[in-house]
Design goal:
Distance between the termini: 78 Å
Largest sheet: 7 strands, mixed
Bound molecules: succinic acid
Number of helices: 14
Shape: globular
Strand content: 15-25%
């Protein structure tokens, strides 16, 4: 296949960060099969570059190398040294932020400004866990047996499988591997086949930062059977996955055969509620931030907008004005404020949800069409008159579609919000303090945004309840996902 390297790649400050190989056994490598797969630019649908397509034998080798790396890294570094290595990596990520953001924009489609924001967000996890690594304390516990002492150590769990999505090609890598490396684990990463180049640039910078190559393996593949090794190989002690609920359930079942610890950050169907006492302008700003971020392709995007009937007309009119100001286009064009979807499937789902809603009585307030642009674009769209009978009520769109439902009471809307098997994020707007406490407790989600559409940050625990997953990433809880607690009871050491 002939690939024409885009000018933006040739113009990187450091073109050597654009890597189409895998990283196994401490070196950049290609599979003996010579197989490769194409990575597409969503803005044009053309091939951005070719990437090595590793097979089962390569995954087995990566896991074995990671085990060797783990034994050495976990025993030869102090927590403070691991924190310093992460700090070095953070500095290199920030120093190369423009290059990483350019690569990220080309393979994911999000605008350069958004990609720069993601690089800072990704780096914030590295900085956070650089600080957390030396603070992984154990306990000394009063024993119920005279003379005994009970203590706990936190120990790295071992080799971790890291399986990441394409919507945050940088942040989902760092949110998982920074705590793992900080705890003293080794990782084997399967980056998403849509956006592997950002992962490889980050790994290259981690190596330059001094992190031992043997404790990081990055193995791109299109071969699902090969990747299954990561959830079945007994050497792997932990699986961290971000992606769809159906894939997460499948991987969890396989991982349970060898009782691996799992973190699953899965699908959402976030409610976004605007009560009658809300500040409508703040609610519109929040809806724009959490609905149209990454063209609506985040697990925490608002999927169902419930607006009180008394303020529905005002909210809808203001949201339409804001949506009409979005400028669709190529992510590296500075005028662009909204990029494409990642692939054709994303566009098809938008179309299906809009057609279904309109056929059941919804009205298109703005957008609704595929624009005459190359690549995988869809107009940001607002629908009104949406009901529970429509697909958007139960199915995550993962695209720039804002469907507006109306409601009349708090009790009714809380029941509607909770009427889903998902429970990742939820948002609501109200100035009534008692309602803020009441509704934030009643909403069945792992994360609730009150009067804000921005809930993601390194210090805030990220994760869901119900079928949105298990485990928490980031925050003071994130490192525990990569550790075990060892209890040591010492007999007859204390005089009584
Ligand atoms: C995701 O959509 O998977 C992550 C979103 C975030 O970190 O805010």
């Amino acid at each position: 296949m002939t690939v024409f390297t885009p000018e933006a790649i040739k113009a990187l400050n450091d073109p050597s960060l654009f890597i189409g190989k895998g990283f196994i056994g401490g070196e950049w490598t290609v599979p003996s099969s010579g197989k490769e797969f194409p990575v597409y630019e969503p803005s044009s649908g053309t091939v951005l570059g070719m990437v090595s397509d590793f097979g089962l034998a390569d995954f087995k080798r990566a896991v074995a190398d990671a085990e060797t790396g783990f034994q050495k890294y976990s025993t030869s570094t102090t927590a403070a040294q691991r924190g310093q290595l992460l700090r070095n990596w953070f500095n290199l990520i920030m120093a190369n932020a423009d290059d990483i953001a350019t690569i990220l924009t080309l393979e994911n489609g999000k605008t350069f400004a958004e990609a720069k924001g993601e690089v800072s967000y990704a780096a914030s996890f590295v900085s956070w866990f650089a600080e957390e690594a030396p603070r992984s304390y154990g306990d000394v516990i009063p024993s119920s047996t005279h003379g005994n002492l009970v203590m706990t150590y936190k120990q790295p769990i071992g080799v971790c499988a890291i399986i990441t999505p394409w919507n945050f090609p940088a942040a989902m890598i760092t949110r998982k591997i920074a705590p793992a490396l900080g705890a003293g684990c080794a990782v084997v990463i399967k980056p998403p086949s849509e956006t592997p180049f950002t992962c490889m640039a980050l790994i290259e910078l981690a190596v330059r930062a001094g992190l031992p190559g043997s404790c990081m393996q990055a193995v791109p593949t299109k071969d699902r059977n090969a990747a299954t090794e990561l959830v079945t190989n007994p050497i792997i002690k932990k699986v961290s996955f971000t992606g769809s609920t159906s894939v997460g359930k499948h991987l969890s079942k396989l991982a349970m055969d060898t009782m691996k610890k799992v973190s699953m950050e899965l699908g959402g169907n976030a409610p976004f509620i605007v009560f009658e006492d809300a500040d409508i302008d703040t609610a519109v700003d929040g809806a724009m931030a959490c609905k149209f971020r990454c063209s609506g392709q985040t697990c925490v995007c608002a999927n169902r907008l419930y607006v009180h009937e008394a303020v529905a007309d005002e909210f809808t009119a203001k949201l339409v004005l804001a949506v009409n100001r979005l400028k669709l286009g190529y992510g590296l064009d500075p005028e662009t404020t909204q990029g494409p979807l990642v692939n054709r499937g994303g566009v098809e789902k938008m179309t299906a949800h809009i057609e279904d809603a309109v056929s059941k009585g919804a009205k298109i307030e703005t957008g609704g069409r595929k624009p005459a642009l190359p690549g995988f674009f869809h107009e940001p769209t607002v629908l009104s008159g949406v009901t529970s009978a429509m697909a958007v009520a139960t199915d995550e769109t993962f695209g720039p579609l804002a469907p507006i439902f109306t409601f009349s009471t708090e009790e009714e809307v809380v029941a509607l919000a909770n009427n889903t098997e998902f429970g990742l994020a939820g948002y609501f707007y109200s100035k009534d303090v008692a309602r803020v406490i009441r509704v934030s407790r009643a909403i069945e989600c792992g994360m609730v945004g009150v009067n804000t559409g921005k809930i993601s940050a390194a210090e805030a625990p990220f994760g869901g309840v119900k079928e949105s997953g298990v485990g928490r990433e980031g925050s003071k809880y994130g490192m525990a996902e990569y550790e075990t607690i060892k209890t040591v009871t010492i007999g007859s050491v204390l005089q009584v």
